[in-house]
Amino acid sequence: MNKIFAKYLYARSSAQKLRLVAALVNNKKVVEALNILTFTNKKSAKLIKKTLLSAIANAEYHHFNKNNMIIQQVLITPGPTIKRIMPRAKGKVNYIKKRTSHIKVVLSNINFRRINGAKG
Length: 120
What we know:
Layout: E1 3-11, H1 15-25, H2 30-38, H3 43-61, E2 69-78, E3 82-87, E4 93-98, E5 101-109, H4 110-115
Antiparallel strand pairs: 1-5, 2-5, 3-4
Helix pairs in contact: 1-3, 2-3
């Protein structure tokens, strides 16, 4: 087992906002990505960091060293949208869409990537 992952389902942020931060840490070493996420001043950074820490804990459970791990992929997919209404004048309504997302962080061992010919 050389790929470790963690999921955060129904995160209360839109996929567009999460993808901006996910692009910062994609294909980075885990320690470097943690530093980037710690000092990025966005709610999305906290959500992705929470998922990354869960993936690191999963990797340590399987006896991987986090210093030898790299983020192979941060996958953001849109989740269900929570729909609310806002009353307006003359009996009309406006719809408020509260978007959710699913975050998946996939970690890979650096040595495994080099053996299989991938860039690392």
